[in-house]
Amino acid sequence: MDVAFIFPGQGSQKVGMGLELAQAYTVARDTFEEADSLLGRRLSRLCFDGPDELLKQTENTQLAILTCSVAALRVLRQLNISSRIVAGHSLGEHSALVAAGVFSFPDALKLIEYRARFMAEASQQQDCTMAAILGLEEKRLETLCEEVKSVGIVEIANYNCPGQLVISGETAAVQRLIATAKANGAKRCRPLAVSGAFHSSLMESARVQLESVIGEFTFNNPQNGFVANVTGECVQRPDEIRRLLIAQVTSPVRWEKSILTMGGAGISHFVEVGPGNVLSGMVRRTLPQSLCLNVEDLKSLGITVDAIGRS
Hints:
Blueprint: E1 3-7, H1 19-24, H2 26-39, H3 43-49, H4 52-55, H5 58-78, E2 85-88, H6 92-99, H7 105-124, E3 128-134, H8 138-147, E4 154-161, E5 164-170, H9 171-183, E6 188-191, H10 204-213, E7 225-226, H11 238-247, H12 255-264, E8 269-273, H13 278-286, E9 291-295, H14 298-310
Parallel strand pairs: 1-2, 1-8, 2-7, 8-9
Antiparallel strand pairs: 3-5, 3-6, 4-5
Helix pairs in contact: 2-5, 3-5, 5-6, 5-7, 7-10
């Protein structure tokens, strides 16, 4: 079976995520309890019950999505559903590396605890934001970013799929670029409800801090294919994975290229593992002939198991 597991990033969180799987599967419940124990706080309660305002905070969101994704991954494996290749969007890259056996779930939690804190601190130091730009060609948007740099820093943060790009930067520059993009034919420009300018040079302090602590963690050879955000290509060497994970903090997410790489490797089934189905929509826009599934609750799990079982 040519299956890829793909893992969501920040923005996919919602109150109640992971609850149904934890109620129905011991392995999922144990994952949340493991996270609670390792972190010394009830992350599970925040995932299951909220409140939404706390769940949206970067320091909580990243840990919560990682834990939900790993819980869903463990349920799939218990049901003997596996993947040949993995990838994750931004934060989700860490879930993918757990799936690939590059590092353990406890190490991923600790690493994300660092990452989330460093990114939150960098965000608090400046007035910055992000926005989705729909219906504009990459080269044209790249040119517009250069044209508005007199206002402030603004860069493309996510190359998500055909017709969907995300910009990141100082608020004034992002606002100017939104107006300029609309004037240049963008179909829609939507400010994102985020706390920082992720995947831009404004996260440089977070990148430096992450680089200073990442040596604490052991990186193993991936047990299956792994596609990195920064390059959109398969990476096998642990030292290269480590280098790219650091670079990812200030580099754009090459998600469309990542999807094409997986498709080129013969992947026909994509399973989004964790809360939401945003990535599934991006896959459909990039590879319309592929089968896109997701696992976030009992209904989606049942559909996925049935679909892969029939294939």
